[in-house]
Write a structure and sequence with these properties.
The protein is of the alpha/beta class. It is built from 17 helices and 21 strands. Bound molecules: flavin-adenine dinucleotide.
Length: 604
């Protein structure tokens, strides 16, 4: 055994966002020992940034809502390539998981009669998002963290996992370094849950935080697990475009849910001109009806600003490309106009959207109660990820589970806002439960010292390269620029083939980067180590996007602008081949049970 500190747990959870915390709580409730490692400080995982709310058919604001409507909305939003079993479990279980959060101390905004208040969001038929102003993620993290710590979970923060350790086919632990001191450590566990979040840092403009470098996706892939649906990267329609230092920072959909409208440089509310056929029946065809919807009129239909994110993002791109954009290259999002509709509009906006008010005031010197914001699309979320069993969240590798954004299935080709926070608590719970069960059913495996030594050697290589070697930041920046330009919102085969060639060159450069300094909190070293993950997910996205020769949800192909019926029946699946090369195949989506089909038909 190599001479590194070894920590033993029954279940090891990697990631301290909503999914990781919920998994850890559930595993610990099953009386197994639980360790949680996270690259960030505890309390700072990306989930803390979530704003608009958590989707659950509580029916507190609109009694017509129920799990079936939520299920049908999720499948329609995902363009029917979702894992229907996950979509079903999610819709059925989200209300209980939200009520459980409340019982554990989460203080949601309230209805007049004291129940959890719910707000409108894109693609959701009824007001469905339980929220805490526009700081829902903070409340979720605070609640789960308090609850988890009292359950006795061991937390190892600022620790970065570099590789999963295997005994034969099974995952039996993880190896990595603590960011502060740069010391290696082995985690020996009977089951491992990946809850590492998203991949936004593979792109130049993103709403994601620094640790969203696709580590879980890459760790699973290199351990032999299958990834699925990697072509589906969500570009949120509204990120800040100005000033440059905060370009990409999210502007919550809650702004549009509260009545915010999108206009172009001509002052035209352009979304009314682009309502897709399959949403026409559910969408307002005039401004008055759209406004009434946002104010809770149950007889009104949603305004077109609340169509799905993929569609709204593309409409914004078109306005900008056709010369009707705002001065800094976006379009206008205006909530201040509601002063024409309600008294005390400024106070109302500040109460409903406090973070947005401060974000624009402090970072852009814009008062959103008086002026429109300038917004444009930003890389926000990946629908693709580790392919898991819907009920247990186990991956295709024994002992390895995944939950939250790094797992795939529930969202299909496009995620509805609010469905991530509910995904975290529904499937985080399931992952924790079944990882604990796996740990109880299996003895500990053996740590393979050769795997540990290989990972340690690879991690230290950048220190040994000559002082003139290229640093990691330029490689990272070139990757982000290339993904943004060639594998972004609108895709073409020739551009993506160029991106694949570019990725090969970036892999070569990443293998030669050198760093200076020592191992104690060395950001250059951390970035050099992130490159392998970023390049792995970038390649998976690129190959999957090339393979899907159609436009569906978040994947828009300029060269194949329509849906292909046959491709609507398959998911793309990525695996590491025996030769180490990335392999892609199409896998048929299993037939949906008749009762679920009936729900979808009835809700059309
Ligand atoms: C600004 C913003 C607002 C949003 N608002 C909403 C919303 O209102 N509603 C909604 O449903 N969704 C929203 N989303 C999306 C949602 O917040 C995320 O999809 C979700 O929080 C992801 O949670 P997670 O638990 O999967 O991962 P995260 O919260 O991203 O946590 C990942 C964890 O893994 C750790 N980690 C990563 N790699 C490693 C490694 N190698 N070793 C150790 N630890 C590692 C990280 O440090 C972190 O602790 C929003 C996203 C953004 C950016």
């Amino acid at each position: 055994m190599p001479d590194y500190e070894t920590v033993e747990h029954d279940v090891l959870v990697i990631g301290s966002g909503g999914a990781g915390l919920r998994a850890a709580i559930e595993a610990s409730a099953a009386s197994v020992s639980v360790g949680m490692v996270c690259k960030c400080l505890l309390g700072k995982a990306h989930t803390v940034m979530a704003e608009g709310g958590v989707a659950a058919a509580l029916a507190n604001v609109d009694e017509r809502d129920n799990w079936k409507v939520h299920f049908a909305d999720t499948m329609r939003g995902g363009q029917y390539v979702n894992n229907w079993r996950m979509a079903e479990l999610h819709a059925r279980e989200a209300p209980d998981r939200v009520r459980e959060l409340e019982a554990w101390g989460a203080v949601f905004d309230r209805t007049a009669d004291g129940r959890i208040l719910q707000r409108n969001f894109g693609g959701h038929k009824y007001a469905r998002l339980a929220h805490v102003g526009d700081r829902t993620g903070l409340e979720m993290i605070r609640t789960l963290q308090d609850h988890g710590i009292h359950r006795g979970i061991d937390v190892h923060m600022e620790f970065c996992v570099l590789t999963l350790l295997k005994d034969g086919e099974r995952v039996v632990g993880a190896f990595g370094y603590d960011r502060e001191r740069g010391q290696f450590k082995i985690f020996h566990a009977k089951a491992v849950v990946l809850a590492t979040g998203g991949i936004g840092k593979a792109y130049k403009i993103t709403s994601n935080s620094w640790d969203c470098t696709g580590d879980g996706h890459a760790l699973a892939y290199h351990a032999g697990a299958a990834l699925t649906d990697m072509e589906y990267v969500q570009f949120h329609p509204t990120g800040m475009v100005w000033p440059p230092s905060v370009c990409g920072m999210l502007v919550t959909e809650g702004v549009r849910g509260e009545g915010g409208i999108l206009t172009n440089a001509l002052g035209s509310r352009f979304m009314f001109g682009f309502i897709p056929d399959n949403y026409k029946a559910q969408t307002a065809d005039n401004e008055e009806e759209g406004w009434r919807y946002t104010q809770g009129d149950k007889n009104a239909r949603r305004p077109p600003e609340l169509l799905t994110r993929d569609h709204v993002a593309r409409c914004i791109v078109r306005e900008i490309k056709e010369g009707r954009g705002s001065p800094h290259g976006g379009v206008f999002l205006d909530i201040s106009w509601i002063k024409n509709k309600i008294p005390n509009a400024a106070e109302h906006i500040q109460r409903k959207l406090p973070s947005m008010y401060h974000q624009f005031k402090q970072l852009g010197d814009v008062d959103i109660t008086r002026q429109p914001m300038e917004v444009g699309p930003t890389t926000h979320y990946i629908m693709g990820g580790v392919r898991v069993n819907a009920d247990t969240q186990i991956s295709s590798v024994p002992g390895l589970f995944a939950a939250g954004e790094c797992a795939a299935g529930i969202n299909g080709a496009n995620r509805l806002g609010g469905n991530s926070l509910s995904d975290l608590i529904v499937f985080g719970k399931r992952a924790g439960e079944f990882a604990a069960k796996f740990a109880k059913d299996h003895p500990a495996g053996q740590i393979n010292s050769a795997q540990v030594e290989e990972a340690a050697h690879r991690a230290l290589e950048p220190f040994q390269r000559n002082p003139g070697a290229e640093g990691p930041y330029q490689v990272q920046s070139d990757l982000q620029e290339m993904m943004q330009n060639l594998v972004g919102i609108v895709r073409k085969e020739d551009e993506m083939l160029r991106a694949l060639e570019g990725l090969q060159r970036l892999w070569d450069r990443a293998g030669r980067v050198g760093i200076t300094g020592h191992r104690q909190f060395n950001p250059g070293w951390h970035t050099a180590l992130d490159l392998r993950n970023l390049l792995t997910v970038a390649e998976a996205i690129c190959r999957s996007a090339i393979e899907r020769k159609e436009s569906r949800g978040a994947q828009f192909r300029d060269d194949y602008p329509n849906k292909d019926v046959a491709l609507g029946n398959v998911n793309t699946v990525i695996k590491k081949g025996a030769d180490g090369a990335m392999q892609i195949r199409r896998e048929p989506i299993p037939e949906m049970p008749a009762e679920l089909k009936k729900i979808i038909e009835e809700m059309k």
